[in-house]
Amino acid sequence: MVRLKDIAEHVGVSISTVSRVIQNDQTRNVKPETKAKIWEAVKQLGYIPNQHARNLVTNKQEKSHTRTMKIGWVANPKQAETNPYYATMYAGIRDTLDDNDYTLISITKDELENEALLLKTIHDLGIEGLLLIEAIDDSLIEYIQQNIPLIGLDFHYTDKDIAIIDYDRKAAIQKVVQHLVRQGHQDIGFIGGGANEGYVNLDSEYRFKGYKAAMEEAGFAIQPGWVINTQWNMENSYQKMKSLIKRDPLHLPTAMVCASDFMAIAAMRAAREHNLRIPEDIAFFGVDNIEMGKYTFPQLSTVDIPKYEMGKIAAKTIMEMVEGKITLPIKITLPFELVLRESSNKKRT
Question: What predicted TM-score, i.e. pTM, was given to this entire model?
């Protein structure tokens, strides 16, 4: 068992200094570089500050007074409340945990990345498992994974060595492009965002990989000017689609594959403002099947993602991990389905 003394000897400071840093004691100042060394030692040595937290790590607790029945949910609070994709997933998680007498605790990325709050969040609050939507640093994932079970649910975690509940983003877009090709389209563009920090690198995003693979499979060249990186911002989708149309109105793609319904809806508005007919002049296809897509004009074709089911399965899986029924980082891929509506239903001749 790692003690405060071990951390103090590892860093070369007093036990009281280690204690002050870990407990966020503000009565005496500790140099930032010393604090950083102490937190690094905490992670390296695997220090757990109390017996309750040790019970979580060894997974020996039973459903009794030692259980907190708390699961953490790490997501952007604004997205979780206002974005239909995340809100539906959240509902699946919440409903399933409620049915099993668990409590869902909202945790922000900042709370995990703030060294003064990390141990409080993971241990003092009694969180028994963690569901990740927001992207957090790999070193932080490793530290948390050493202490409590966790599951990743969004594209940030596709390649991580943790339990994952997701759908095949690459295959979904490949299916969309293949459908458009069968409709007679050859000039197909793409609207989306990157998967990395700042969302700037499209090549790292699986929906874009699916688009490239399907275009290559069909033998069609990708026109760089028809590829729009919105960085997942609706206004960017609207403005950049306008720019694409203005740049060469006589040479436009006949279809745009959009990595989310929000990106498609914004781009469709730009097309209509320039008197382009949808789908006669340009077809649009989104991803997510949010409710709003049924009420656009024309109605938006999309990929239906089982958002509520993803949340439900994530909740069931994290409960089984917390209770010791699952010990491996399993990866569950849910099916998707194309929803064909007016925005892409006209064959090219």
Answer: 0.78
Query: Are 238 and 202 in contact, with CB atoms under 8 Å apart?
Result: no
Residue found by looking up tokens 């097309």 in the block: 271
Q: What is the pLDDT of residues 124-148, one digit of tens each?
A: 678 899 999 888 888 788 878 878 8
- Which CATH number describes the domain made up of 50-166+310-332? 3.40.50.2300
Inter-CA distances, 337 with 229, 301, 302, Å: 25, 11, 9
CB 272, CB 264: distance < 8 Å: no
Which tens digits make up the pLDDT trace of 206-255? Answer: 999 999 999 999 999 999 999 999 999 999 999 999 999 999 999 999 99
Query: CB-based contacts of 303: which residues, under 8 Å, 6+ apart?
Result: 172, 173, 175, 176, 285, 286, 287, 288, 289, 336, 337, 338, 339
- CATH code for 1-47? 1.10.260.40
